[in-house]
Amino acid sequence: MNPIEGHLPIRSPLHDILAPTGIAVIGASSDPTKRGYKAMVGLIKDGFRGDIYPVNPKADMILGVKAWPSIAEIPGNPELALICTPAASVPGLISECGRRGIKGAVILASGFAEMDAEGAALESEMMARAKAHGVRIIGPNTSGVFNLHHRLNLLALDNVRPGDVGIISQSGNMLLSLALEAQYNGQVGFSTYVGPGNQSDIGFNDYLRYLGEDEHTRVATLYVEGFRDGRNFLDVAREVTAMKPVVVYKSGSTAAGQKAASSHTGALAGSYAMTVDLLKQSGVSVVQHSDEILPVAEGLGLLQKARGKRVAVISDGGGQATIASDRLSEAGLELAELSEQTRQKLREVLFPQASTVNPVDVAGSTDANPSLLATCMEIVAADDNVDSVFLVGMFGGYSIRFAESLLGDEMRGAEAMVDLSKATGKPLVVYSLYTPIKPPALRRLHEAGLPIYASIEHAVRVLSALGERGQYLAQVERQSRERSVTPLPELSAMFQRAQREGRDLFEYEAKQLLRDHGIEVPLELVVRNEAELAEAAQRFGETPLAMKVVSKDILHKSDAGGVKLNVVGEAAMREARQAILASCLAYDAGAEIEGVLVTPMAKKGVEVILGVIRDPIFGPVLMFGLGGIFVEILEDVAFRSIPLSRHDAEDMVEQIKARKILAGVRGEKAVDKSALVDLLLKVSRIADAYPELSELDLNPVIVNSDGYAVVDARVIVDREHVATKESVA
Amino acid sequence: MNPIEGHLPIRSPLHDILAPTGIAVIGASSDPTKRGYKAMVGLIKDGFRGDIYPVNPKADMILGVKAWPSIAEIPGNPELALICTPAASVPGLISECGRRGIKGAVILASGFAEMDAEGAALESEMMARAKAHGVRIIGPNTSGVFNLHHRLNLLALDNVRPGDVGIISQSGNMLLSLALEAQYNGQVGFSTYVGPGNQSDIGFNDYLRYLGEDEHTRVATLYVEGFRDGRNFLDVAREVTAMKPVVVYKSGSTAAGQKAASSHTGALAGSYAMTVDLLKQSGVSVVQHSDEILPVAEGLGLLQKARGKRVAVISDGGGQATIASDRLSEAGLELAELSEQTRQKLREVLFPQASTVNPVDVAGSTDANPSLLATCMEIVAADDNVDSVFLVGMFGGYSIRFAESLLGDEMRGAEAMVDLSKATGKPLVVYSLYTPIKPPALRRLHEAGLPIYASIEHAVRVLSALGERGQYLAQVERQSRERSVTPLPELSAMFQRAQREGRDLFEYEAKQLLRDHGIEVPLELVVRNEAELAEAAQRFGETPLAMKVVSKDILHKSDAGGVKLNVVGEAAMREARQAILASCLAYDAGAEIEGVLVTPMAKKGVEVILGVIRDPIFGPVLMFGLGGIFVEILEDVAFRSIPLSRHDAEDMVEQIKARKILAGVRGEKAVDKSALVDLLLKVSRIADAYPELSELDLNPVIVNSDGYAVVDARVIVDREHVATKESVA
């Protein structure tokens, strides 16, 4: 399957439910304070094209529509029921829906599992009946749904226009807020909205899959408080982002927020930093502020992607060119370096005092001639070094600020920008300080599908999302995720032994696991007698060695005099061994001493940490960071879902703030990044191959310009997991 | 002078210039494309109360106002001239203005010093004439000025309303952008605007002082690309912030932005991080994003300050309560811990499923009863643990979303909030998702001076600024900046000796400087012979010592075998000395060896760095950070203008991200912060007392739970500065 062109294998059942030819409104009402009234108003006002069947035993007509006393008596064949009645009535109604052939029900009532044990029992009862009758459930406890392209507006929101932004939101207020924002700025329209509610049947991931398939949705936008099956979500997201942008705002970025979220939805929030890393790994565009959701969704919906992160700025005000440069730089975007040819062309059309270095500052050249801005945009868009074009300043307002007579020229400029946007494959993003008052030239740009922003900050977030998406798609096309290795029978047996004995792997076993899968682990020999010492001396030659006592009775080896460093040659080794034995026995006369471990001294380098965890939400995850304070104090770590692609591994190494240290500081050579990337990939493959491996911790690994040395390895064994034929096949 | 109640000693001449009884518009025009037309329109449309004298030799009337052929022929006594003519004409016109008794001139033309050498000469000529005739200059190359409370609108901006936000902006586009934003959201009004332009006479700092004095300005708002006399700016800012909030947006936060700014204004940008620290030290509210300028200015103008950073959130939607919690936490604010009494009162009015833990989630309790939100606000505002109240959700929209019949109750709620805002000293900040469409209840709140936001992010920035300002004012009231010490004659002589010899201080001199001002520096003795060694052994007793060769010929002491560590007792010292001498002479037979330096081994602890620099813009500045990668790679440092207050010093230690390390990690004890604060204050005093000290670098200082040890000290001497009587007095 080509992930860009392809379609998801299973068509979501939501297509039928959310585009019904008829709808039963159970609990429809003429009382304006009732939800059953609101929904009727929404359907009627928006001109729902199918049949509406209000169900209410106490009314003949509701808002001019004939009402029916029960579901059984409805004459047509509605696919969807909206249930507005209280929780207790729901299980019975679901059975009735099922008997009437209704395929899906939207259940607004709360008072189910989110409430108490009694509610949970009611929810189970409801689900049992839904399954028995083949009725799919949206909710319960949902804020509702709409599908504006089918004029199905069960929320009765005023003034929402059909468009291409699909929304799934775990907060009804958030949907409302986005709808009001869209109404206010008048640019964005919506396709489908779903409030997942308790997700007792159809869940978050199913809704995302549906938005991925929905032809009216060009961008899927999600407000998430907590994931349930995060691992599956990442899989679905990967499929959907290959086809269209997915924008996620995840709340609970702080401990305070997570506490608030868990009291709201009861969802387990998990580490925010990890969640963000994993979402990005699946191609999701993550926004960090709630007021960026709609601008970013709009921009991605209209422009989809940029080839890269090199932005050309055209500005008619030096101050705002500076602000734009600051924000671009902070967002990890680059100011494109314009070619000499481009600069020459700009010089030909601009005043001498203009700056033709990016950010281009026209310095008054356009005051009497605003369409010249379009010419400048065309010139920079033609430059191979430019991935996207950012117009900053007062375009649209020249005829207001300077002279009305400029309106004609300004409209010509707008027309030229529209032509340019069609001709060039590069995104054009416009910030104008006149955006709030929507002058004609900006209205023209907007009609033609160019996004116009009232905030430099928001425009830059859009440019950043476009660049990230373009780069993501490029690397996804280039490579697939690295395949897992086949588990080795003797290592699977080793895990089983540990499981039987109710213990984790011994360090030497952990190191064996690594070694057998191609990870270089320094040789370690346990010397038990003079003969073994002679043999070890033979093998290590003149290599400086570390020697450590091996005894289950001696925990603090150094305190017991059980460690000798920088030992070279057989004579010194013998002396060191005797000293260690003597000292340890003096320290604890009863200690059972197995022998002395001999291994080469670790080379100097940078300490890094690799860890594998099985996250309860997201499954197996690899963590990488620098050792010591970087992980513990600065929390400067990167996470990726296992298995990693090569790009993922490379990206992890570049992501951490301490990457400068890996690149070499204070005259140190850069570490061998390709060896490090190779190590990350091998660890990922091992974790993928052995489901019995619950956690893995390489801490520290010393990396330097020659490669790496795994100093310590720890593997926690999943005592529950019993390897199946499949997992050892 | 009480800094809160007091007034600035000198009244700014700008009061007369910016509130003139008459204005001459030189170069007034009937051509709508000319600036001399725009200005006339602005004055007439806004109803300027004084006399308008268009000056244009070619016209009798301009826009219905009698024109005058020259300045000399004007009949009245205008205080102000607006000069709209090209640069070359300006010097002559200034003389004419002066002869006519005009006190100030606003000069729009560019083509002066910002252009080229010829322009610079023209500017000098203009200034010579201005000084000769006592005419004060705004500009040249200014975007203009307005003083809306005097209906003096020389920019001819439409739809700007008089209000209490004063603005100084180094970008005309930025002013325009703020004016359009204010027009759009319809809440904010302006007092005075000035574009400082080339600042050839009146400068940035004078304008700030004027806004500080101006009775119509409740908050001064500045867009700054670069400071000139930054030290003086900080002084003026300190005086003004004691009276009213000062909001600064400083562009050039990144290298890319600084490059763009310098090509725009030619201003030297300086370190952004340092600038932000110094501005905050002077009580300035720094905003980081351009779209936060107006929201923060508005909020500070209306609400001025909060007692602290403990915020109570009242929300009608769990999702947005979560977002608010995230943003508050990220901004360094706290979710106030509500007292049991407060929670009990909330429980009495809310549904059982409501959460009375902050963030308070009313969970549907207000759906049919929105005025209950005001009741909740009143309950939490009465809690001593609460410094400000943040209402989050759909207030104002209940009558739109639920039922029109709720409008009456919603208006009662708004009225109750207005009453509460008057009764409580605590700021009430409202985010409503209905803000964009301005429903009646929100309009009522706004009329009463409560700021209403359309973005949780902006509302939180306002809460943060209110809390910071409240805490700043509290500490300013408590303490003044620490006074400088008196220079000691022998140390001044030491500096003079170094100056004469054209060198910096020797390390031992630098340490002497520190010691003589009460900083503990470990004892160091240079041992030149056996007798001195015996004497040193006597003094150090059983203290473990470090011994190092002292020789100008041996740079790499360790390589030469010139260092011995952990030496204890006279015999070992003697042996170490002999070994050092032998080894060094073997290393370089010709080396001239002065002796061997003996000092106690540095204790274990955390390495920190203290530095003093004389910044070209901001003058003497103290820098503090952790050693090694923290300064070099992570740039995790704090800056304060010298002299520091005790609060400044304490604040520096708390500001760095690595503060956790000072608090003790991995079982280490916390370092002695009071000793560290004491060290910072002493270094500040020394730098203040000795202007000959150009730079000071204590790197590293080892701090631990027992105190600190200055390991290395370096002092760079200002070779230009000659100590005056004053500076040594």
UniProtKB/TrEMBL annotation, chains A, B:
InterPro entries noted in UniProt: Acyl-CoA_Synth/Transferase, ATP_grasp_subdomain_1, CoA-bd, NAD(P)-bd_dom_sf, Succ_CoA_lig_flav_dom, Succinyl-CoA_synth-like
GO molecular function: ATP binding; ligase activity
Cited SMART domains: CoA_binding
Keywords: ATP-binding, Ligase, Nucleotide-binding
Family annotation (Gene3D superfamilies): ATP-grasp fold, A domain (3.30.1490.20), ATP-grasp fold, B domain (3.30.470.20), NAD(P)-binding Rossmann-like Domain (3.40.50.720), Succinyl-CoA synthetase domains (3.40.50.261)
Entry keyword annotation includes ATP-binding: yes
Domain CoA-binding: 17-112
Keyword flag Nucleotide-binding: yes
PANTHER family: 3-HYDROXYPROPIONATE--COA LIGASE [ADP-FORMING], ACETATE--COA LIGASE [ADP-FORMING]
The protein, known as: Acetate--CoA ligase family protein
Species whose genome carries this gene: Billgrantia kenyensis
Taxon lineage: Bacteria, Pseudomonadati, Pseudomonadota, Gammaproteobacteria, Oceanospirillales
